[in-house]
Amino acid sequence: MLSQLVLLCVMLAPSLVSADALFAEDSLVKMLGPDSFRSALEPNQTSMIAFLSPANVNNEQLASDYAKAALGLHPFVPVYAVDCGQQSNHELCEEKSIEKFPTIKLYPRGNTVPSLTYEDSNESASAFYYWASRRIPNYVTKHYQVEKIESWINENKDKHRVLLLSKDKKVPLLWTVLANKYVGQLDMAYHRDRKGKSSVKLGMEAGGKKEAKILVYPAGSTTALRYEGIQKMDSLSRFFDSMIDGGVDLKVANKVAMEEEFVPDEKELEIERRQEAQRLALAHGGFASLIDFEQAVKDGHGADYHDIHGYPGMMGEPPKKTKGQDDTVVDEPSAWSDEEEGSSRISDEL
């Protein structure tokens, strides 16, 4: 009943600016209606949706911060908005029990699990960003020792397993998103290989400063195939789909992935530039003086943005191809590591 009264007030209020006009044409916030709303909620994907009213006096500031959050979350978490002031959306907003404006909801796995409602009074871009990114369902097993990896490989031999070796302290958001996408189909794990020593023990080179390695263990096998393709969302998804299909030779699929040419999309490159500018602006906002800010940049706050983040949705740089490059088969892991003890299924804090 309350949601009906709220919607009635929205209908009667003077609509000076429609909610969809709040977002720029190049904004990553996409407006939804009843039909597009249902199709947007993918069951294996996390989405954030704002329910807005044109009568809300704080709309412009909210839209600005919400759009910045969308920029930061791209391409991992799609960000949408619904204009509850539009007649065609009234039934949808009532169905979703919208009782105040704005109402921000997170759908961790489409309609398959209950949505979450943003309750904090802090409606800043960073608050929206962290709230959404930290609530992506986590299905990544985090290993601290190579001997734990060996146990995981053997104990889950009946499943497809995928291991990420990274020098990053935290699980990359891309890996968390992929684990959410393929839950029940792939058993995905992460190991921090800070100095490359674990890679050496696994029969590989230590690797570069930012290099990540992906090892694939098909169901029934304890021998890894090293993925040689581009480490971005769509490329990895194609390879994982081939693995799950079962009718594809993984060495052939890996060769196809290895031969993929990285063709930068101008739109994505512009998004990357905007993401970098936003990161630098946020870093500058946290310091009292320009001198402090310049020192922070030297210390890494945004200075190596391209190296750390790269093309949107990608870990590291596109692979460098060499003639005659073959698929790499990795020996089974030895039972030790210089990393921290234990392994656990944990949430990844950004």
Automatic annotation (TrEMBL):
Sequence segments annotated as region (Disordered): 309-350
Alphabetical keyword list: Signal
CC annotations in GO: endoplasmic reticulum lumen
Domain Thioredoxin: 31-117
Leader sequence residues: 1-19
InterPro entries linked: Thioredoxin-like_sf, Thioredoxin_domain
Domain of life of the native organism: Eukaryota
Record-level GO BP terms: response to endoplasmic reticulum stress
Gene3D superfamilies (alphabetical): Glutaredoxin
Gene Ontology molecular functions: protein-disulfide reductase activity
PANTHER family on file: PROTEIN DISULFIDE-ISOMERASE A6 (PTHR45815:SF3)
Name by which UniProt lists this protein: Thioredoxin domain-containing protein
